[in-house]
Design goal:
Largest sheet: 6 strands, antiparallel
Structural class: mainly beta
Distance between the termini: 20 Å
Number of helices: 0
Number of domains: 1
CATH architecture: Sandwich
CATH superfamily: Jelly Rolls
CATH topology: Jelly Rolls
Strand order of the largest sheet: 1-2-3-9-4-7
Shape: globular
Radius of gyration: 13 Å
CATH class: Mainly Beta
Helix content: under 10%
């Protein structure tokens, strides 16, 4: 068992403006992400995601439409071109917890 103390970690920022903290746990990465309205997600993501929205609301645009996720919602997006997607915050900030396969 492992406790991840995100409060003690420093925020990192991606080139697109996404704030994140990452802790590797074996073959998995536990990520605390914070989307904001200012985030410019310039491309369609094809990486799979399994996560939980902590607060706020966001829309995820898919090639076949979009879906809104709010605080308390979990999301499971498989990897691949068929499920390509692009997130956008609907509120000032949207913190989320994600688990990703780091292998």
């Amino acid at each position: 068992m492992m406790c991840v103390a995100f409060e003690e970690m420093t925020w990192q920022t991606s080139p697109a403006g996404l704030r994140f903290k990452v802790q590797k746990v074996g073959a998995l990465e536990l990520r605390l992400l914070e989307f904001s309205r200012d985030l410019d997600h310039p491309h369609w993501c094809t990486t799979g995601h399994l996560g939980y929205v902590l607060e706020g609301a966001m829309v995820v645009e898919f090639a076949i439409g979009s879906q809104v996720f709010r605080a308390g919602d979990g999301l499971a997006i498989p990897a691949g071109d068929v499920e390509k997607h692009r997130p956008r915050a609907l509120t000032k900030r949207v913190p989320m917890i994600f688990v990703e396969d780091a292998s």
